[in-house]
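Alanine--glyoxylate aminotransferase family protein: structure, please.
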Amino acid sequence: MDDKLMLMIPGPTPVPEKALTAMGRHPIGHRSGEFSELVAEVFTDLKWLHQTQNDVLVLTASGTGAMEAGIINVLSSGDRVLVGSNGKFGDRWAKVAKAYHLDVQTITAEWGQPLDPEAFREALEADTNKEIKAVILTHSETSSGVLNDLETINRHVKAHGEALIIVDAVTSLGACTVPIDDWGLDVVGSGSQKGYMIPPGLGFISMSDRAWKAYERSNLPRFYFDLGPYRKNAAKNTTPFTPPVNLFFALQASLRMMRAEGLENIFARHDRLKRAAREAVKAMGLPLLGSDDCASPAVTAVAPTSVGAEQIRSVMKKQFDIALAGGQDHLKGKIFRIGHLGFVSDRDLLCAIGSLEATLQSLNAGNEPGAGITAASKILNAG
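Here you go.
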């Protein structure tokens, strides 16, 4: 049947009808008073979602663009930085930093394992000359389904006194709490196709007062990603360059939906879906890549041993029109990932789990039929 695709990947995520309908409006002038009114509402709601009084700047870019902007607006050539890397996106930030001739030291962990906060503490305490200018890390590592301990690592960064913290919150913002002001996070980047529940195309970045002071010293080249003009224009409820107006329509609609649901309910829903997915996968006899203690609320990584991950993904797509994400880099073909981020409900997860059980049965790789649905239902019914 056509037009029944169900996205159960960590991005792009499903888009609610309200956002799709809003996006279908005729565009309006981006220098009009009507657009400025829309932008004012969006900026207010973005501050609410980010739990900050800082400006949340909107770029026409992906989350990668937002993170690159964060790095190049607060650092200078030759600056020493610590980059946490336990997956593809941690690796990416190290590559971005090296591209701008920063002095990169990586703190690593195996994919599927969380970054060790003690490794950051030791590196920061050893830096008695205060040469480390920033710590860059991914909060929710999408490639492996791991949630890193941002709160603890950030405490060690704050104890250093000089270094900024630059956070990839692309799949954590809108899925779990990222209290920017309470934790004193300096630079936080994210992207629209994740917890924001709209299509790709917008990047978001929050900058602290400390980050803006660093901006004044930064000498890295930038033009389109120079955040100074974005800040000046945000004060006037506009943007420095032509924005994707219709994505702003969608963003306004999705943020209104998020306001209505409430932050705590949003976070509780993602936590519930995470736990249900993981218990269902265990009940089906499939190994998980990481432990429950560090599981991301956005995505669950599964490492099947009795059947190929790509076989599972293929049957799920062909027979049930459900898209699951594959593994990346050295995990390609070895894992599949179930996204439960953004506009995903209990019903959606149960549908995916039931289809996964049927897929395993068709591949002669399943446990007792219904075990996964039963395990997920127990979590979902308990709330």
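Notes: The mean pLDDT is 97.
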